[in-house]
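Running low. Invent one:
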Amino acid sequence: MPAYVNRKDCAGCEACAEACPVKAIVVNEKAKVDAELCTECGVCVDTCPNEAIAMK
């Protein structure tokens, strides 16, 4: 399952988007994961300082 962003906890810092090796995350105030591009590597989960991203 692709990564999921808890938008309530997301600060929009873009750390996850910068860390994503396949550029599956776009940030427009809050992060959003493109499920079709996500390879489920977990880098975004490890990178998020607010723990706003999890694997479904």
Summary: The first strand starts at residue 3 and ends at 5. Helices lie at 15-19, 43-47.
